Amino acid sequence: xxxxxxxxxxxxxxxxxxxxxxxxxxxxxxxxxxxxxxxxxxxxxxxxxxxxxxxxxxxxxxxxxxxxxxxxxxxxxx
Length: 78
Fold this sequence. Notes:
The chain has helices spanning 2-23, 35-55, 60-69. The protein is an all-alpha fold. Helix 1 crosses helix 3. The radius of gyration is 17 Å and the shape is elongated.
Protein backbone atom coordinates (compact mmCIF):
# COMPACT_ATOMS: atom_id res chain seq x y z
CA UNK A 1 0.00 0.00 0.00
CA UNK A 2 2.85 2.35 0.83
CA UNK A 3 4.46 1.72 -2.56
CA UNK A 4 1.19 2.45 -4.37
CA UNK A 5 0.76 5.69 -2.42
CA UNK A 6 4.34 6.73 -3.16
CA UNK A 7 3.90 5.96 -6.87
CA UNK A 8 0.68 7.97 -6.89
CA UNK A 9 2.47 10.91 -5.32
CA UNK A 10 5.29 10.64 -7.86
CA UNK A 11 2.75 10.62 -10.69
CA UNK A 12 1.20 13.81 -9.30
CA UNK A 13 4.64 15.44 -9.12
CA UNK A 14 5.49 14.47 -12.71
CA UNK A 15 2.11 15.74 -13.97
CA UNK A 16 2.68 19.08 -12.22
CA UNK A 17 6.18 19.34 -13.72
CA UNK A 18 4.81 18.70 -17.21
CA UNK A 19 1.94 21.14 -16.65
CA UNK A 20 4.36 23.84 -15.50
CA UNK A 21 6.65 23.23 -18.46
CA UNK A 22 3.74 23.55 -20.88
CA UNK A 23 2.49 26.73 -19.19
CA UNK A 24 5.83 28.34 -20.04
CA UNK A 25 5.19 27.78 -23.75
CA UNK A 26 5.26 30.86 -25.96
CA UNK A 27 3.25 29.18 -28.74
CA UNK A 28 0.33 31.11 -30.12
CA UNK A 29 -3.21 29.80 -29.91
CA UNK A 30 -4.17 28.23 -33.25
CA UNK A 31 -6.94 25.84 -34.31
CA UNK A 32 -4.47 23.00 -33.75
CA UNK A 33 -3.67 24.12 -30.19
CA UNK A 34 -7.26 24.67 -29.00
CA UNK A 35 -9.32 22.83 -26.41
CA UNK A 36 -9.15 19.43 -28.07
CA UNK A 37 -5.39 19.53 -28.27
CA UNK A 38 -5.12 20.73 -24.66
CA UNK A 39 -7.32 17.82 -23.55
CA UNK A 40 -5.23 15.34 -25.55
CA UNK A 41 -2.02 16.80 -24.11
CA UNK A 42 -3.37 16.57 -20.55
CA UNK A 43 -4.37 12.93 -21.09
CA UNK A 44 -0.98 12.11 -22.62
CA UNK A 45 0.85 13.80 -19.74
CA UNK A 46 -1.27 11.92 -17.19
CA UNK A 47 -0.50 8.59 -18.86
CA UNK A 48 3.21 9.40 -19.09
CA UNK A 49 3.29 10.39 -15.41
CA UNK A 50 1.58 7.14 -14.36
CA UNK A 51 3.95 5.01 -16.45
CA UNK A 52 7.00 6.92 -15.20
CA UNK A 53 5.92 6.53 -11.57
CA UNK A 54 5.24 2.79 -11.89
CA UNK A 55 8.55 2.17 -13.66
CA UNK A 56 10.54 4.21 -11.15
CA UNK A 57 11.98 6.36 -13.92
CA UNK A 58 12.53 9.37 -11.67
CA UNK A 59 12.99 7.53 -8.38
CA UNK A 60 10.74 9.84 -6.36
CA UNK A 61 8.43 7.00 -5.29
CA UNK A 62 11.33 4.86 -4.09
CA UNK A 63 12.66 7.72 -1.96
CA UNK A 64 9.22 8.60 -0.61
CA UNK A 65 8.50 4.97 0.24
CA UNK A 66 11.82 4.51 2.03
CA UNK A 67 11.34 7.71 4.01
CA UNK A 68 7.78 6.87 5.06
CA UNK A 69 8.62 3.24 5.85
CA UNK A 70 10.89 4.45 8.66
CA UNK A 71 7.79 5.67 10.50
CA UNK A 72 5.84 2.39 10.25
CA UNK A 73 5.87 -0.15 13.08
CA UNK A 74 7.89 -3.28 12.42
CA UNK A 75 5.73 -6.41 12.00
CA UNK A 76 5.76 -8.54 15.10
CA UNK A 77 6.27 -5.59 17.48
CA UNK A 78 3.52 -4.94 19.97
